[in-house]
Amino acid sequence: MEGRPGRSRHPYELTDESPVYVISVAAQLSGLHPQTLRQYDRLGLVSPDRTAGRGRRYSARDIELLRTVQQLSQDEGINLAGIKRIIELENQVAALQARVAELSAAVEGAAAAMQQREAQVHASYRRDLVPYQGHQGEDAQGHRQHGKPPPEG
């Protein structure tokens, strides 16, 4: 069987993505005829995993998607081409949301690394250096201190 993203590494652990239902059980759970499931597979609306012998195996997520397709078709009056486009767009949105989360984590990591490096640079400053104080109350540019304006010209 081909793997799907997010599938568990443990071979006996069942998840929503685990392809466990044969077509007759999936049809019963979704309330649809097995031929309808085959048609949805041919159209690319719901594509279950396949066994080595090419038998279809549906997951709990596939069953939920079958119910959604049925609801959109029956209750909302959307044709199958429209439903396919909706599913594609929802998948694209989910992929983009995952990518945004991935990039946000990368940005947070880079910001933390930058702050750490900045702290290292500040920690490396020599503390024994002091700013230059000119002689007799003058600053580095030769202007008098203590609130008196600098001499003109």
Can you put this structure into words, describing what you see?
The chain is mainly alpha-helical and 153 residues long. Helix content is 50%, strand content 3%. The protein has helices at 23-30, 34-43, 60-74, 80-123; strands at 49-50, 56-57. The chain has a two-stranded antiparallel ribbon. The N and C termini lie far apart (88 Å).
Q: What's the Cα radius of gyration?
A: 33 Å
Shape: elongated
The major pleated sheet works out as: 2 strands, antiparallel
**From N to C, what is the helix and strand string?**
HHEEHH
Which ranges are low-confidence, i.e. pLDDT below 50, for 5 or more consecutive residues?
none
Strand order of the largest sheet: 1-2
Q: Level of helix content?
A: 40-55%
Features:
mainly alpha; 4 helices; 3% strand; 153 residues; single chain
Give the gist of this structure:
With 153 residues, the chain is mainly alpha-helical.
How would the blueprint of this fold be written?
Blueprint: H1 23-30, H2 34-43, E1 49-50, E2 56-57, H3 60-74, H4 80-123
Antiparallel strand pairs: 1-2
